[in-house]
């Protein structure tokens, strides 16, 4: 079901969108009030399991039955309307909100929402989140479902912004609708909901207290075994990832990363339990770091998760998220290729991932090192393929001639990224020369590089500047694989050798040996 | 249904905004359009009081991004000059990511982008020339020159153990007697040493750090943390 996430706005999707489009064909009329028996059974059981807080059964029905029924009965029509199923679930207000959330998610994934449906879905999220925020929910829902809610909420926001920005072919009715419901998917509303979930859930404090052993959250996978509800807490937790993603879509990488700081990315946590959440978190975390020039950080995290996907993807083959997993996997290889081309720290990448990377991008990465027009085009290609679907959050100016502005945000981010690439243009060249010498004079390097001495000094300082990251506290970190210093007119090169951790290796072997000896002792005694 | 803007905090803020500092406003409610005027005033305050808050400025740029019709280009230009002064931090790019391209094509932003480019590629000669041509843009912000000089010194310290005087002079745009004075100050306060070069003027010895002496950091990388050793204590015993 979470396949409804990320990005499926291929052009056709949108063309269909802009007209008032009814996906149901005439010969197979969709009757929203007809409830097949299997759906009756489904909602009755799901409703019961939710009331009984049977998380396991809820999860089975949510991941399994809903998907199966969708495949069988609702391949290209929506599910029965909420009004039609309400009588079977005591007209339970919260259940109906949850049902509608799934109803819209299914619609977005399999059909194209009409403008009015987009707005109705927003209303449904407002009602649902308000119920949660007011603390009247006492359910226990599976993490997967709660993640999907946040994920889909952000996805639909992004989708709405893309839709709204395509003004050129809008009908008058559509424009009238947009103006009438100008608060639907309003960026302030979206951000404030996510923020309110984070604050109201007290999740930041909970994670803080957990470190001191005063609270359990990660240890119980976010579930509450003392009769309470996990919904607000876990929604708050995932909302931090949601905020990271929204800020990345807006080009605000610094703020995005700040929203994620309560989650310790170097360890597993609730965010790693749901594969979609794990991938979304690391993808955006890595991308933001790439844009902030913290390449080593991006490389390390991409490498880790790509290895994880490489080793576990077979278990997800049947999952509805499988295609999305593969797509994000490919995109992260592209981002890894970019990061390594700008910052060749291959030793940070594990062997399995490196082999995959060479297979996919080996050839392109060699050409990217050259920094000619072709290399430039490759950076453009990989970035465009792998970047998030940037959005312009503001509403169109209806008084002016209507133009499409859905590409503006993407073009700006691409341009600024390529600008950075250009600034680093000469660095791979100088790195290649430095690798050949232990000392070399400025004059000699200048003549090899066919530039004058002041230019060489500038290039060398640029190299230092671009390979040394300064964080908020003024702490400098080196990302350089080849480093150097200048003494008057002489460059001294220091290649950072892979410092083999012999110490740790021997420690492990000592412990192993000890275990073997112990085992053998036991054998003798028998 | 909640079709109206979901912003539960607005009222709360209006009644008590006097009690908050701007930094707190941003921390407590980063997505509230009502704090925009406070943030604009705060930019001017940063300019006059020689302080800086990236978070507050990004918050303001974000609000401009959400409601472009409220954008004040003079304020944006001050934010960008302040961001240049924060070099080597990437603040300038962080700000540009949030400013629409059509705005970036106009003055003074075009000039500021060129200045940033020279700083990012450490072409200090060109930078100072360009800055001199655009005094009206940069000189409204006190401390500009000193901040860029500090950045130049930072990059020089990463790069050089001993830097020839003319290279330093070009980077910080100070010469002659003023440079002597500057050097004197650095010698007393920052541990700089002045050496006689081989016949051609002075060499300035910059304090050693792990970046202009990469050998320094190696030693720490090869040690074993104590907690790893504790694992074999039982065996050793």
UniProtKB/TrEMBL annotation, chain A:
InterPro entries tied to this protein: eIF3l, PCI_dom
Keyword set, alphabetical order: Cytoplasm, Initiation factor, Protein biosynthesis
- List locations, semicolon-separated: Cytoplasm
| Biological process according to GO | formation of cytoplasmic translation initiation complex
Q: Which domain of life is it from?
A: Eukaryota
- Boundaries of every PCI domain copy: 301-500
In what ranges is there compositional bias, type Basic and acidic residues? 10-29
Which interval of the chain is the signal sequence? Answer: none
Record has Calcium as a keyword: no
Xref: Pfam families: Paf67
Molecular-function GO terms, alphabetical: translation initiation factor activity
Can the keyword Manganese be found in this entry's annotation? no
Where is region (Disordered) located? 1-34
The entry's cellular-component GO terms read: eukaryotic 43S preinitiation complex; eukaryotic 48S preinitiation complex; eukaryotic translation initiation factor 3 complex
- PROSITE patterns (alphabetical): PCI
Family listed:
Belongs to the eIF-3 subunit L family.
The identity of this protein, by name, is Eukaryotic translation initiation factor 3 subunit L
Species of the source: Stephania japonica
Automatic annotation (TrEMBL), chain B:
Keyword list, A-Z:
Cytoplasm, Initiation factor, Protein biosynthesis
InterPro entries tied to this protein: ARM-type_fold, CSN8_PSD8_EIF3K, eIF3k, Transl_init_fac_sub12_N_euk, WH-like_DNA-bd_sf, WH_DNA-bd_sf
| Segments passing through the bilayer | none
Q: Which SUPFAM superfamilies match?
A: ARM repeat, Winged helix' DNA-binding domain
Domain CSN8/PSMD8/EIF3K stretches: 72-198
Q: Which GO terms describe its molecular function?
A: ribosome binding; RNA binding; translation initiation factor activity
Q: Where in the cell is it found?
A: Cytoplasm
Gene Ontology CC, one term: eukaryotic 43S preinitiation complex
Superkingdom of source: Eukaryota
GO annotation, biological process: formation of cytoplasmic translation initiation complex; regulation of translational initiation
Which family, according to the similarity comment?
A: Belongs to the eIF-3 subunit K family.
The record's section on HAMAP family has:
eIF3k (MF_03010)
Q: How does it assemble?
A: Component of the eukaryotic translation initiation factor 3 (eIF-3) complex.
What role does it play?
Component of the eukaryotic translation initiation factor 3 (eIF-3) complex, which is involved in protein synthesis of a specialized repertoire of mRNAs and, together with other initiation factors, stimulates binding of mRNA and methionyl-tRNAi to the 40S ribosome. The eIF-3 complex specifically targets and initiates translation of a subset of mRNAs involved in cell proliferation.
Can you say what this protein is called? Eukaryotic translation initiation factor 3 subunit K
Organism field:
Stephania japonica
């Amino acid at each position: 079901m979470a396949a409804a996430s990320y990005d499926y706005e291929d052009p056709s999707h949108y063309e269909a969108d802009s007209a008032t489009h009814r996906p149901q064909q005439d010969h197979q009329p969709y009757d929203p009030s007809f409830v097949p028996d299997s759906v009756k059974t489904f909602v009755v059981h799901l409703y019961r399991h939710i009331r009984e807080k049977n998380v396991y059964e809820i999860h089975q029905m949510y991941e399994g039955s809903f998907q199966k029924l969708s495949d069988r009965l609702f391949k290209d029509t929506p599910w029965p309307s909420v009004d039609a199923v309400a009588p079977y679930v005591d007209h339970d207000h919260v259940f109906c909100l949850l049902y509608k959330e799934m109803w819209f998610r299914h619609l977005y994934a399999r059909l194209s929402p009409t403008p009015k449906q987009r707005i109705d879905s927003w209303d449904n999220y407002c009602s649902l989140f308000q119920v949660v925020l007011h603390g009247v929910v006492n359910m226990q829902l599976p993490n997967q479902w709660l993640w999907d809610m946040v994920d889909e909420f952000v996805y639909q926001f992004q989708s709405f912004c893309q839709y709204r920005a395509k003004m050129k072919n809008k009908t008058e009715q559509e424009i009238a609708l947009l103006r009438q419901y100008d608060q639907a998917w309003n960026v302030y509303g979206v951000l404030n909901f996510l923020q309110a979930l984070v604050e109201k859930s007290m999740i930041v404090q909970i994670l803080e207290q957990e470190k001191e052993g005063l609270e359990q959250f990660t240890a119980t996978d976010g579930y509450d075994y003392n009769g309470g509800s996990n919904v607000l807490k876990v929604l708050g937790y995932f909302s931090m990832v949601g905020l990271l993603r929204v800020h990345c879509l807006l080009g605000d990488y610094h703020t995005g990363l700040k929203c994620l700081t309560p989650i310790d990315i170097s360890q597993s946590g609730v965010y790693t339990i749901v594969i979609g959440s794990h991938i979304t978190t690391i993808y955006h975390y890595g991308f933001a770091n790439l844009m902030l020039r913290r390449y080593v950080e991006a490389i390390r995290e991409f490498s880790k998760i790509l290895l994880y996907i490489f080793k576990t993807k077979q278990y997800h083959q049947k999952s509805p998220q499988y295609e999305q997993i593969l797509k994000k996997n490919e995109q992260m290889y592209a981002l890894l290729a970019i990061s390594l081309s700008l910052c060749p720290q291959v030793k940070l990448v594990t062997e399995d991932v490196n082999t995959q990377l060479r297979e996919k991008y080996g050839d392109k990465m060699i050409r990217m090192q050259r920094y000619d027009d072709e290399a430039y085009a490759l950076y453009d290609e990989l970035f465009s393929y792998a970047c998030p679907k940037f959005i312009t959050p503001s509403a169109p100016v209806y008084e002016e001639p209507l133009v499409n502005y859905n590409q503006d945000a993407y073009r700006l981010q691409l341009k600024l990224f390529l600008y950075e690439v250009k600034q680093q243009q000469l660095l791979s060249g100088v790195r290649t020369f430095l690798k050949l010498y232990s000392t070399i004079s400025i004059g000699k390097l200048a003549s090899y590089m066919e530039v004058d001495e002041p230019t060489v000094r500038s290039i060398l300082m640029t190299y230092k500047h671009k390979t040394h990251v300064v964080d908020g506290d003024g702490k400098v970190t080196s990302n350089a694989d080849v480093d150097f210093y200048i003494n008057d007119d002489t460059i001294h090169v220091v290649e950072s050798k892979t410092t083999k951790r012999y110490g740790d290796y021997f420690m492990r072997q000592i412990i192993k040996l000890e275990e073997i000896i112990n085992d053998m002792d036991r054998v003798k005694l028998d | 249904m909640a079709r109206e803007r979901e912003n539960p905090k607005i009222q709360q803020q209006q009644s008590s905004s006097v009690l908050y500092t701007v930094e707190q406003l941003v921390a407590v409610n980063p997505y509230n359009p009502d704090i925009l005027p406070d943030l604009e005033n705060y930019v001017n305050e940063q300019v006059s009081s020689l302080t800086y808050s990236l978070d507050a400025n990004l918050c303001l740029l974000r609000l401009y991004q959400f409601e472009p019709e409220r954008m004040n280009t003079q304020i944006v230009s001050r934010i960008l000059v302040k961001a240049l002064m924060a070099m080597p931090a990437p603040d300038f790019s962080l700000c540009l990511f949030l400013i629409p391209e059509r705005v970036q094509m106009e003055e003074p932003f075009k000039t500021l982008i060129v200045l940033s480019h020279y700083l990012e590629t450490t072409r200090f000669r060109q930078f100072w020339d360009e800055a001199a041509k655009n005094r009206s843009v940069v000189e409204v912000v006190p401390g500009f020159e000193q901040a860029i000089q500090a950045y130049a010194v930072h990059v020089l310290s990463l790069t050089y153990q001993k830097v020839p005087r003319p290279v330093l002079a070009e980077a910080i745009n100070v010469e002659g007697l003023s440079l002597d004075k500057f050097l004197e100050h650095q010698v007393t306060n920052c541990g700089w040493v002045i050496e006689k070069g081989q016949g051609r003027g002075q060499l300035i010895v910059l304090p050693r750090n792990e970046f202009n002496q990469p050998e320094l950091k190696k030693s720490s990388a090869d040690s074993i943390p104590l907690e790893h050793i504790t694992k074999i204590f039982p065996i050793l015993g």
